Every structure is written in structure tokens, then in C-alpha cells.
Amino acid sequence: MRDTIITNVQIAVVDHEKMTREFVANVMMYCVNREIFVFDEVEAIKSFLQGEQHLDLIIADLRMPGDNGAALLHYLKKEHPEIIVVAMSADPADEIVARDFRADAFLAKPFALKDLFQIVQRFVVDDLPAHLT
Fold first, then answer.
1. pLDDT tens for residues 34-44?
2. pTM across the whole model
């Protein structure tokens, strides 16, 4: 990976399960050598994005209490279409939901470490958002 490309990327992880949220955030932090934003509910990341904050990539669980990840995915694609969204779920049927709501990728739980590395390779290194080029 090329460090000069990764230095500006802003990544967030949204999952109500603390263990998964911290695992994904730690792996992403290792990959990009940068702080990762973490949220345990949909409303928290919506509030974050309504401020002056910018994100390039969000990895979000589709199955969360309250406003779920599908609602978040719908919101993001409508209000922030420039953000890359990777949906994740333990239910393989949710891959259809992710596709229907135009997620950029889907991770089936449990996933391997290499799957997270591939997300960084695909969306952070190979396919940079226009403002990072």
C-alpha cells in the first residue's frame, strides 16, 4: 500500500456490538495508520455527518437496534452518495438488502482479517475518492 494515498482517508465503523466494532476499527487503523471513528448507533453517525465532518468510507452493520443499518444505508446513499458504504451482517440474506440499498460491498459475519484488508485495497488504495487524487 502507498502511505501517501492513505493519509487523508476518513473511515468510520458503525456496529452496536462492541467486540466487532473495536475489531474492525483496530484492523482499519492498522491498515491506514490513522484514527478510525466508531459509533454504536445510527443516530450518532447521522449527527456526526450533519456537522462539518467528512467521511470517505463507512463500514456498518445492517442489524442494529433502533434505526438499523438498512435505514443508515438508505440515508447515506440519499444524503451522502460520495461516501463508500460497506454493509456487514451475520445473516447471509442481508446481502440482498445491501445490494438493494446500493451498498458498495458486503461482508458476511464472521469474516476473515483478509476480507478487511481487501476492503482497504479495493476502496482506499485502488479506487480513491476524487478529492484524494
1. 899 999 999 99
2. 0.87
CA dist 8 and 29 (Å) reads 13
- What CATH number belongs to 3-122? 3.40.50.2300
* CA-based max dimension of the chain: 39
Distances (CA, A) of 112 to 7, 23, 108, 109, 117: 24, 11, 9, 9, 9
Helices (H) and strands (E) in the chain, counts: 6, 5
Domain boundaries, the chain: 3-122
pLDDT in tens, the chain (133 residues): 334 344 578 999 999 999 999 999 999 998 888 899 999 999 999 999 998 788 999 999 999 888 788 889 999 999 999 999 999 999 999 999 999 999 999 999 999 989 998 988 888 877 544 444 4
Cα–chain-centroid distance for residue 17? Answer: 15
